[in-house]
Fold this sequence. Notes:
elongated, alpha+beta, 20% strand
Amino acid sequence: xxxxxxxxxxxxxxxxxxxxxxxxxxxxxxxxxxxxxxxxxxxxxxxxxxxxxxxxxxxxxxxxxxxxxxxxxxxxxxxxxxxxxxxxxxxxxxxxxxxxxxxxxxxxxxxxxxxxxxxxxxxxxxxxxxxxxxxxxxxxxxxxxxxxxxxxxxxxxxxxxxxxxxxxxxxxxxxxxxxxxxxxxxxxxxxxx
Length: 193
């Protein structure tokens, strides 16, 4: 199974990225990060210094603490968010469950869902295209809703239905395909074509 450690050698940095990008709006101080990732404080400090030097994280002094947050203007922010979306949470659960869900052509998670932003009007958090086994999908979604403590709004359709909706300029599909997304299964270019 693919993981961030395939690309990032430092296991401490991988853990820090997961913490920062799972909750991108949150700020953390060093001891809090140390407890969350279960690593030595000096290793966390070293990684934060490196991440700050390359512009990945920003710090803010509040009282006697320094809080760190991920820099949304970092050059590879979108790519890292995509990797985190695929290797943790809902993305990871879907990747693991894919073989028992049926024949999947496309699985897409909304970028807003991954960034913990409110759902846009008339869109979904998760779009699945193919021949799916609904009881297994429902089980995965319910499990992830309880783990994430939030509702997952999803839509399932066949390839034929997707093609029909795209050729007839269905506004619902149009809004979904115009929004940011993270592809879990399938090619993004093929999905939007």
